[in-house]
Amino acid sequence: MGRRKSNNNQCSSSKEDTNMSSHLRFEDAEEAVEESSNLDQSMCDIDESDDKTSADYYFDSYSHFGIHEEMLKDTVRTKTYQNVIYQNKFLFKNKVVLDVGAGTGILSLFCAKAGAEHVYAVECSHMADMAKEIVETNGFSNVVTVLKGKIEEIELPVAKVDIIISEWMGYFLLFENMLNSVLYARDKWLADDGVVLPDRASLHLTAIEDADYKEDKIEFWNNVYGFNMSCIKKQAIMEPLVDTVDQNQIATNCQLLKTMDISKMAPGDASFTAPFKLVAERDDYIHALVAYFDVSFTKCHKLMGFSTGPKSRTTHWKQTVLYLEDILTICEGEAIVGSMTVAPNKKNPRDVDIMVKYSLNGKRCNVSRVQYYKMR
C-alpha cells in the first residue's frame, strides 16, 4: 500500500435532499451500540481544562499571510469561485454583494470584475488592512468597500444585499464554525429574492485500511524507547487527523451523511445525528473512518462545485481521518452500521465534538463501540 504524504495538522445519511446525493459529478475547477470506549462520558462532558483553543486564536491566525497563500494556491477552491462568478455574470451585474470573511478580498475582486454595483468585504482579522490596500492597488476602491470587524458587530451602509458570498468551510466542513456567521448575515441583510453562494454543502463518510499510519501515529505511544506512554495514545486517538487519503485505501462505499441548504437552514441545523451503513467492497481490515465534504453552487446557469473527497483533486482541506480503537476484520458485503453525532463544542464553539457509534457483526469480527473525537 502506498502511504499518503504525512501532515501532522491534527485539529486538524439523513438525505434531506435526494437531488444532492453523492451521484453528482462536478466539472474540473480549471475548466445500535453498547460498549463505550475512549471516553466514559457524554459529549458535553469532554475535558475542557485547556483554554487555549481555536476560539482564542481563530482571528489572529487569519492575520498571517501564510494561511491565505495556501488558500489562494488551492486552485480547486479558488478557480471554482472564479468560474462561478465569471461564468455567471448575470447573477452579479449591478447587484450589491456581501463577502463574509473576505480575507485578501479575492472573491470581492472577482465580483467587482464581474459587474457588481458594490461589494462590501467584511474581514475581522488584521488582513482587512491588507485587503483595503489590495483593492486600492487594483483600482476597485469605488466598487469594493472593506469593513474591518465581526459580521455580527459591524453595520452595513445599506439595508439589504442581493448576494452573500463566502468561503466559510473548515476542516470536516464545520471546524471553525464560520457557517453561523454566514447564516447571521443572511438573516439580517439578504433580500427576499437574494442568493447565497455557495448554497449547498454535504458531508460524506467512508472507511479505510490504514495499518501502517495507525501504527506510526497511534500505536507508537505503547512503547516509546521502552516506556509505556499509552496515556497519550488515548488523547491522540480522540484528535481527528487532517490528511490526504489514497483512494486505494478505501474499502467501503462512500455515504452521504448530511446535506445543508445554506439558503434555508437554521444555525442549529449544523448540529445533527446521522445514521450510516458502510458496506465493504472487498475483504480487508478497517482502521479508520474518513469524512469529506462537497460544495455546490446550484443557482448558476449550470451546476458548479467541487469535492474534497479522496477520489477528487486534492484541496487544502484534505480529508478528516477518525481512527477506530478496534481493527475491524471485514468481508466483502458486510456492513459497518452506526451513527455520527456532530455538534459545536459548548465552551469553544469553533471546535467540533464528534461522537461515533459503530458495530460490525461479521463472520470474522463482532464489535460494538462508541468513540468520541474533538477537533480543536
Automatic annotation (TrEMBL):
This protein's GO CC annotations: nucleus
Subcellular location: Nucleus
Gene Ontology molecular function terms on file: histone methyltransferase activity; protein-arginine N-methyltransferase activity
Spans through the membrane: none
Domain Methyltransferase: 97-172
Main location: nucleus
Keywords assigned by UniProt, alphabetized: Methyltransferase, Nucleus, S-adenosyl-L-methionine, Transferase
Pfam families the record matches: Methyltransf_25 (PF13649), PRMT_C (PF22528)
Ranges where the Protein arginine N-methyltransferase domain occurs: 199-362
PROSITE patterns the record matches: SAM_MT_PRMT
GO biological process: one example: methylation
CDD domains: AdoMet_MTases
InterPro entries: Arg_MeTrfase, Methyltransf_25, PRMT_dom, SAM-dependent_MTases_sf
Positions of the UniProt region annotated as Disordered: 1-45
Name of the protein in question: Protein arginine N-methyltransferase 1
Organism for this UniProt entry: Vigna unguiculata (Cowpea)
